Amino acid sequence: MFLRAVLGVEPAIPIIMGSNVGTSVTNTLVALAQSADRDEFRRAFAAATVHDMFNWLSVTVLLPVEVLTGTRQSHSAHKRIGAGVQSTLGEQDIFARKY
């Protein structure tokens, strides 16, 4: 989406942060589904908790850093690179495979 200039850097940051939080809910639900076996449930819930903590800590650390430093506004070089790749490829979709 970035290479096609459909989505810029600024709106992508909250989307990425939201997907991190969303996967935290998903892995907790999967861990709860393992409740039939007590030992397996403990391992699954421990793994889900580690994953949750990583995602939540990354959001709580990186989002304020991004807001305070304004790094999204300094990515104009990336926008030019993305536009250059798009103009080089023309209308060809770089992710589509022809079989």
List the helices and strands and how they pair.
Elements (H helix, E strand, L loop, with lengths): L8 H24 L5 H32 L6 H14 L10
Helix pairs in contact: 1-2
What does this structure look like?
The protein has 99 residues and is an all-alpha fold. It has one domain. Helix content is 71%, strand content 0%. The chain has three helices and no strands. α1 (9-32) runs antiparallel to α2. The protein is elongated. The mean pLDDT is 75.
| Low confidence ranges | none
> What general form does the structure show?
elongated
User: Biggest sheet: strands, sense, closure?
Assistant: none
Query: Helical region count?
Result: 3
> How does the helix and strand content classify structurally?
mainly alpha
Share in β-strands:
under 5%
C-alpha termini separation:
23 Å
The total beta strand count reads 0
Compute the CA-based radius of gyration: 19 Å
- Give the oligomer, counting copies of the same chain as homo and different chains as hetero: single chain
- What is the arithmetic mean of pLDDT? 75
How are helices and strands ordered from N to C?
HHH
Percent helix? over 70%
Tell me the domain tally.
Answer: 1
Features:
single chain; 99 residues; mainly alpha; 3 helices; 0% strand; elongated
Summarize the structure in short.
With 99 residues, this protein is an all-alpha fold. It has helices at 9-32, 38-69, 76-89.
